[in-house]
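> call design_seq(struct)
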């Protein structure tokens, strides 16, 4: 009658509410350094087969179609979009961007213990020990650890990730560390843990480590930051589409309710 339509439309509203939350998060992080937007994937729920396609009819011939009723929609997952964002030239020595594939490695506290995490954000700074750390809320330390001498007056990071400094009173640059990058066979399988960090999962596969410009890894651009890859125009269009689709599903519920009211008001004479 109309009861199944109520449940089917409800699955649509629930799925679209989930998508609205994802779109809102994309828009909220439009100014977050190197933020990677997410896309919601949907799939239809299993079908109620009232009559199977190909069923033999009275003439012993297979019917060309069947009678199947879908039971709605569900969210199959969210998919990270790792396309590179545009670059912002800051001219800051410890602002680093990756041109191409790869992620920085940092030491982060995850699940109550220190673990390796990964990030595209390159807004680095120094802590009290002179170590290069990510300028997030907890100051995640770059891995491998690179320490800048206290008397350093100039820091240079080349495209291959070699970090050199010039100390006060010296005209020569000396090497202090080598930045390593990581890439994954399935970057979309990384887990977002907040603070611009990603965590390795079974879906992402193990990290493939190497120096910048080697083994398919990108190069380092000093004095630049990668911006969010969120397209505000596209996200606003998605926002409007989601709202309209939600309204259509609510209209289906109203129509189903009216059908049920009509049935309940029937009188036998």
């Amino acid at each position: 009658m109309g009861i199944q339509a109520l449940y089917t439309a409800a699955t649509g509203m629930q799925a679209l509410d989930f998508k609205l939350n994802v779109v809102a998060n994309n828009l909220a992080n439009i100014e977050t350094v190197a933020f990677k937007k997410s896309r919601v994937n949907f799939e239809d729920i299993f079908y109620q087969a009232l009559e199977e396609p190909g069923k033999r009819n009275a003439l012993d011939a297979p019917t060309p179609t069947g009678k199947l009723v879908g039971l709605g929609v569900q969210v199959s997952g969210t998919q990270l979009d790792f396309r590179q964002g545009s670059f912002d030239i800051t001219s800051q020595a410890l602002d680093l961007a990756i041109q191409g594939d790869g992620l920085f490695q940092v030491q982060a506290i995850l699940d109550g213990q220190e673990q390796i995490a990964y990030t595209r954000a390159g807004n680095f700074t120094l802590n009290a020990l002179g170590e290069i750390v990510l300028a997030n809320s907890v100051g995640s330390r770059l891995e491998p650890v690179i320490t800048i001498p206290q008397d350093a007056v100039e820091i240079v990071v080349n495209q291959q990730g070699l970090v050199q400094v010039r100390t006060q009173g010296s005209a020569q640059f000396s090497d202090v560390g080598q930045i390593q990058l990581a890439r994954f066979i399935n970057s979309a399988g990384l887990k977002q843990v907040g603070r611009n960090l990603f965590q390795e999962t079974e879906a992402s596969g193990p990290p493939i480590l190497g120096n910048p410009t080697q083994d398919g890894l990108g190069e380092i651009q000093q004095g630049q930051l990668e911006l969010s890859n969120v397209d505000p125009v596209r996200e606003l269009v998605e926002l409007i589409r989601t709202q309209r689709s939600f309204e259509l599903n609510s209209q289906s519920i109203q129509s189903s309710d009216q059908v049920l009211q009509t049935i309940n008001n029937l009188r036998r004479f």
